[in-house]
Amino acid sequence: MSLKKIVFIFLFIFSFSKSDAQNFEYGKASQEELQQKVHSLDSTAAAAIIFKKGRTFYTYRRNNGFILNHEYTFRIKIYKKEGLSWATFQVPYYVGYEKYNDDVVKFSNCATYNLENDIVVKTKLKGEGVFKNEINKNWAEASILLPNVKVGSVIEIKYLLKSENLVKFPVYNFQYDIPVNYAEYDTEIPEYFVYKPILTGYTTIKSEAKYAQGSQNFEDEHGQSRGFRYSQINSKYSVENMPALKEEAFVDNIINYKTALYHELESTRFPNEKVKDYSMTWEGVTKTIFKDNDFGKQLEERDFLMQDIKLILKDVEEKNKLNVIFEFVKNKMNWNNEYGYFTNKGVKKAYLEKTGNCAEINFILIDMLKLAGIKANPVLISTVDHGVPVYPNRTVYNYVVAAVEREGKQVLLDATQKYTTQNILPLNALNWNGRLIRADGTSEEIILAPTFQSNINYTALANIDSQGKISGKLRIQKTNYEAYSYREKNNAINTDTYLEKLENELGGARITDYKIENRETDLMNPITETFTFVSNNHYERIGGKLFINPLLFFAYQKNPFVMEKRQMPIYFGFPKQMRYNLTLEIPEGYEVESLPTAIKLTTEDNTAVFSIISASSGDKIQISIIREINKSVIAPSYYNTIKDFFQKMIVAQNEKIVLKKI
After folding, report:
1. Measured distance CA(536)–CA(511) in Å, rounded
2. Which uninterrupted H or E stretch holds 464?
3. Across 269-345, where does the E strand assignment appear?
4. How far apart are alpha carbons 116 and 148 in whole angstroms?
5. In this predicted model, what pLDDT tens digit does every residue of 95-139 receive, in sequence order?
6. For residue 372, how many other CB atoms are within 10 A of its CB?
7. Is the backbone of residue 94 left (phi > 0), alpha (psi -120 to 50) or beta?
8. How many degrees, rounded to 5, is the angle at CA 148 between CA 142 and CA 154?
9. pLDDT in tens, 466-484
């Protein structure tokens, strides 16, 4: 089974069992809740959801048909000042429909409870604490600011979200960054609709379903009351004592792993009508996207680019055309930091204004490549912060890059960033798989995780004096994603600030004579840093002997994997190798007593590798160390192996060089 399937998705098998759900009374906080100082299961929690209850049900109007109603209630306890952020509560809702009316959000009966002189005091939310804001052309946000909230308060929130969009329900979250004592979600789905429930996360959710009778009443065109009855499925999902979702080392986007429930419409089955299938394939999704004027049509708008193409490709060899066009678009266009795979103002206007969203810039790139006779297509991506596309749907993507077919392989390009190169995308785009789509409606999955290594090579020539001071020259070379990451992180930092940061990273070593190559130019080539260093902090003197770490200031000091168990994949971003070649000259009057033991550590199938080789000759010591991670993402079932590997590596790399007086 693939890692993607293990991590993200399974379908519910409903059990027709009796529920043991608890009863919670909304509108009345207890003294016990208000007196509680810390959460009973998580003393670090800044707040906790005492209960969350959701209900999805249908109403009917003659002109609009069925309408979805999503009702939510929360009771939340505030334990620490960090939990006061829950006093501001936001609900996003969709307003970008073409065929439906905007979604509507309405808050009701929201209040704050405090204990004053052993009396429970309730402060109700008034109208001035309710706000609505436009986020963009498709989304708006309703929010409230609850009154009189302080450490120790209990707050209650209730709202109704109404939508004419029956294709999917809003995501129902069972897990948050604070504990949830109890959560329950009830759905009442008429027999006319068949939905597929999809659970993400790792926690088991109790579920039950039963058949029931439903009914609707409405006014006909004459103002007369009408009604009809039908069968429906009532389902209940519940969980108790859901732990907080907490950050761990090497996680791409922790939100991807929260326990949540999705509902996607599979089909409708109305009386005297054919069954209508809403299940989407990736081909169906891509065809729909390509037909949109803000997508497919923009990939045909090329004539305005012809003159510039002729100028920039004059006297350029065929093999160099791709990179010349790519660099031209990167340098000419400026990204406005807007995501999306549809254009906003169109490629022509974006080109004239030299600024655009990611679709406009990369569509310009694709159009120019096609004018040059280079086969190029768009690739849809869901960025790391957007989540993982687990099922076919238009909304699962939020980004687009270009792909050029070369010798049967796809070369990925993104012109929104100044430091990207061929097959080096922004780190936020390295999220599972993308989907290449063509004008003929065909598509294919594109693996975004890099398979090639990105390297950092360290070469040091250093002298150790009789007092243990270490001085010498260091050369650092970075390739591929390591070079890209360096450029992105440090492009806006001046040299003095960068060197101060580097000295701290090197354990307080002093740096002089610093030089760097290929920081802003020759992006296809490695970045090379050279400098002189002096360090007084990387040795110990005990009983006349010098104890020196073989990795100097590059050694791991502690294992980054400290959790006893792990449910989330380990995300390294890209395969990487760090190679250290150190030549150390020992002080006069000393000789080598011992060197680190040669060792090679490998995990199963070489996912991680560590090796150290040391030798001495005369007054010289040679150390060669390699650290490798050969996968971008590692399954959580492999966690104990990786944790154990890192621990053994730390022990091995901290075995000291021992020098003694002759």
Report:
1. 12
2. strand 454-464
3. 276-277, 334-335
4. 12
5. 988 889 999 999 999 999 999 999 999 999 998 899 999 988 889
6. 19
7. beta
8. 80
9. 888 899 999 999 999 999 9
